[in-house]
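## Example record

The block below lists the input lines for one assembly entry, exactly as stored, with component labels intact.
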Amino acid sequence: MPLPQEPSIPGGTWGGEWSADAFRKELMDEQVRPEDDAWNNPWDPRGTELRDRPGSYSPPQSPMPPSPTSSFASTSPPNESASAPSSGRESRGSVKKSFNPFAKSSLDEFLIGPEKIPVTEKERIYIDDTENGPRWRPNPTEFTCSVSSPKKESKFHGMKSFIAYTIVPSETREERVRSERSCVSCRVSRVFSKQSVSRRRYKHFDWIHTHLTFKFPFLPIPPLPEKQISGRFEEDFIEYRMTMLQSWVERICRHPVLSQSETFHHFITCPNDEKMWKAGKRRAENDRLVGANIFQAIERPHKPLDILHVDATLDGFSTFLGRLDESVRLAQSTCLDQAKRYQMDFKREHDRVSFSFSKLSKAFETDPFNDGSGLSQALQEMSTAYEEIGTMYEMQPKHDWDPLSNLLFEYRGLIYSFSSVNSLLKDVLAKRRNAEKDAKEGRLEYDQLPHIINHSDTVAYAFEAELAHFQAVRTKDFNKAIASFLKGQISFYQKISDRLGTSLQKFIM
Amino acid sequence: MPLPQEPSIPGGTWGGEWSADAFRKELMDEQVRPEDDAWNNPWDPRGTELRDRPGSYSPPQSPMPPSPTSSFASTSPPNESASAPSSGRESRGSVKKSFNPFAKSSLDEFLIGPEKIPVTEKERIYIDDTENGPRWRPNPTEFTCSVSSPKKESKFHGMKSFIAYTIVPSETREERVRSERSCVSCRVSRVFSKQSVSRRRYKHFDWIHTHLTFKFPFLPIPPLPEKQISGRFEEDFIEYRMTMLQSWVERICRHPVLSQSETFHHFITCPNDEKMWKAGKRRAENDRLVGANIFQAIERPHKPLDILHVDATLDGFSTFLGRLDESVRLAQSTCLDQAKRYQMDFKREHDRVSFSFSKLSKAFETDPFNDGSGLSQALQEMSTAYEEIGTMYEMQPKHDWDPLSNLLFEYRGLIYSFSSVNSLLKDVLAKRRNAEKDAKEGRLEYDQLPHIINHSDTVAYAFEAELAHFQAVRTKDFNKAIASFLKGQISFYQKISDRLGTSLQKFIM
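Predicted structure tokens for the full assembly:
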């Protein structure tokens, strides 16, 4: 018997637990709007487009700031914002899957009592009961993974070109990881070709991303950097995407559940062999522990959870996530804007100062009473210093604003993904409440209720374990990223000061 | 018999020895035009007027950049550019006097042989023949003078208000200066009132400026900061004007000829006694050694000068002065523009960065899983750091851009004044050439020629001595001003770096 639907809860949206609209409106009034604030520049023929920054690729922002009346769920996720239509479409596709990765009927089935699927020990996902609350059991074989050497490759006799990246799991544990974790279909040949290199295209990343999203509906899968059609072979873009893919892979590696996914191991270890790759892909496609079924693989503490406490946790976290989303958007917008100003406006201002001092130097050069005191040369040196400082401004964003912007961009995606995890728990809690009500009023047999409560607790346990993981990761991420940003800024201003010190020595005091 | 007029030389203009128009046009194409380049600022209701800078007074630029076809002599001197009409008028008056301080007939008279005026030893102006060429004999009693304590005073029972400044000659030599140099009319009372303070109003500065301009037509008298009607009691303006008057007085004190002027000594030493002040004023008005007559007071080497060499010197210097004028204008415009950007745009950008990090901090404050790692506090501290850096940008111009701008403003005036000195020599050389031609062709008696040549050499000697002085002073001025500017910039960037270093310590690395 299917569970009755609760009509008052909109499926899969985030519907206003926190006063999103008021908050967003308040923010909008003060928010940086790069398109309103371009510095007119009669010297510079380049426009004020964010993409126009020389020498670096900037991740796109949402093309329009969210309208004050839009609900949170309807704002664009980062990988929906690509300007190329087809890329936008593909990315939207993958996000949609992550948003409602399994049918409602499948969720209902799971809550009541699904068809049992055999779970091997390797497939089990453990939640430990720690003194701080439920936690994912750490991955016993932690590892990292590098994405490098982007190279243009082609197939069909050069008819189709693409960029492929080399994927290498961390060397220190490489052997152990490869022997213990690589998928069965790869293992045999691995033994004979340890040196074979894994090369992956963006479409492979897209495939593994879709798989993880489908398999782990209770986890916020970090979105990929968006696909791009035009300019995808440009050096800046390739480097930017490699950085983002590297960061994406690292984030999966750091996750205690995702990092143990056999399909992910297939993705990072399978050598360049079409047959082996397809075999692993087929295994993944035949995996029955996906969607609602994956909850059967979760081994969690037996203690039932207090539904009021779970509700409060969800509410508190939703409020926080809303605030974090707004502030991360604003901060990323500021990073992009500052990077642009460094490369355009600040550079131009220093060029102007340089030009003025150079003119002054040239005037003193024509001084017929030049006493050889070197004033003209000193002024020229000073002009060069300001020109160099202008160039320092131009090159600086890659040391501070760009990496910080990249992290914030990732977080915008993570936050968006988390909103679907929130929705899942919310749906489950609503169904549980309805079931309790129905049982009380005789519309549901009483012996079905413990199943439902038990299974809804599993979803809640997974949620709490993931919240704890997310908290630890974001504290580390932000501390590290901002410390690195500040170090970049400190050394930047120090370098300017030092450079001017060299100029000062040329003047007679 | 009056000298025949040479119609081909326009009286008192600079007429195109250097390719001013081409050079100016080239410069105009690249020049900073603050009015074209205002940064749009939706946050800031203030306009982009240069005068709008908060917390400081900026010297005005010429209201319009010179049109590419205007001749040098027709561009506005600094003290013509005041926006208040009456101030503009007054200033123009004083500049006009300096431009043609004595009638042509008086110059003719001097060249042929003027009425002898008795010159006392104290009134003599010596030009020494050094191995480097003609030089003013240094002032044996060098001194400086401070302008301080601007205070609003009034007379006619409060009907008329004005600002008066305290003038104090340098203490170390004060006694000697006062006893040896103070004017006769002041000396007696001085002995009895050593502590009496000299208070001077702007109109007194204006009077001494006019006197010096009239008395020493062969010297470029530095112009005064412009008179201002509206806002003249505002603190920023008063402080700015005091700085400029101080600098003006110092420049007179540093000049070997001007610093020995009895009237100038009267100006800096006469106590606040109406009777004594008027007595000194009357003496100055009765001074007959003014205008063309002052050349009678010049004692210079007997050796006649090579007119071709003098011509070449004048040409070379005119070219240099034109270049210097253009580059000083551009540099001053850049200083004003940068000061404005520091106080408006750079400050605003740092405020935005601060605001973004503050929002991020506030979001983390609402984190229900706050682990006490202090991320929110660290972000707030960082936000404060950027806010403080914004304020540092706002306050910085007074330590670097403003003082440099002030020096450049003074030089624009000096260069302008020098153009009338150039014109004087040019007129004299033309008259001498005509006289030589007339003598050859029998239109002038031959015994008049040596007088004319002798007296034109006196003007040329004075010119060369003044060029040498100007050269020494400007090398010192620019070295000092730019070194001071660079020191300001170096310590500024160092402070920013240090401030961010404090923030960095709050993050866990």
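Residues 307-365 of chain B form the longest helix (59 residues). Residues 241 and 485 of chain B are 20 Å apart (CA to CA).
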